[in-house]
Amino acid sequence: MRVLTVVGARPQFVKAAPVSRALRGGAHTEILVHTGQHYDDAMSASFFRDLEMPEPDVNLGVGSGTHGAMTGEMLRRLEPVMLDQEPDGVLVYGDTNSTLAAAVVASKLAFADGRRPWLAHVEAGLRSFNRSMPEERNRIVADHLADVLLAPTDIGMSHLVHEGLGERAELVGDVMVEAHTWAASRAAAWLPAAVREHDRYVLLTLHRAENVDDPDRFAPILAGLALDMPVIFPVHPRTRARLEAGGHALPANVIAIDPVGYLEMVALEGRARAIATDSGGVQKEAYLSGVPCITLRAETEWVETVDAGWNRVVDADPAALAAALADEEFMRRDRPRPPLYGDGSAAERVVAALERMQARADRARSLQEAATT
Questions:
Q1: Single pTM value for the model
Q2: Domains in the chain, start-ordered, CATH in brackets?
Q3: What are 162-207's pLDDT values in tens digits?
Q4: Vertex 294, ends 194 and 235: CA angle to 5°?
Q5: 207 has catalytic annotation
């Protein structure tokens, strides 16, 4: 089986790592394509090194831009790569512009001999029900184009069934469980030096456009971070640009550091007293680390972490952020933490699902050839 995997951003590198190992260990061929959506070393190349993934076979080097320009350039550059590589199938992850572009190209592609690649979407079925989020539109389109929908949770499966996609969907669990377990066993030595003197801190990640590009949201979020404990803040390039543009200043207790690699991030998460974030992936990593999470958005796709009592959605309300940190029951780390995301075998299930898809494609092709002879 020949699989072309498309990634472009930090969460996708993390999710792809265990699946890539399972694919290559199963004697399948994987062509790894990096769109270049995250293009600086700390957000891209270091993650491949940290995750012990092979360097991408193709780097499209698209870089940043508006959503339309970025996605259009990915479409233009992906199509000739897929035509040249002629994969049996295309594998996409998550909800980025890279996901959308790869899904659109794969769904419209046909090779010279008439074959068409199947399309598989890992992390299918997530919904925030906030159509103003670009990520929400991306994942809905990818789900409705995909031939194989690989859901991480029962809730994700229920969304797919509700949208009439149940026959193409399969519950495999979350590949981030394997990635996190692998990283946590290696992360202790990777704690950034600037943090080692702090035993009690809040870890902050903040990068979504609806937060950092909107002064009416960015200002109260920053105000809420003026706490009586350190806040460790690996600053995303988008957020750094907004801070450098002026008009916003970090509170004195916020320690800004450069973006970190995956092993450093897992080390930071595991040592934190709490994590405040607007990242979907970091919410899940907080749960896997057993650290209370405070979500700086109006909603979350990972509602099961809220139901389990480990995640609190506070939007941009500084009082709600302070209340969460002051809630002793919420801040306890010895509470029950059910295995919401599977048993750590999701990557194997993903590969098995792809193998079944390939077997169906082979049978259909054989029947078609028999009918024409």
A1: 0.90
A2: 2-174+343-371 (3.40.50.2000), 191-331 (3.40.50.2000)
A3: 999 999 999 999 999 999 999 999 998 999 988 988 988 999 999 9
A4: 35
A5: yes
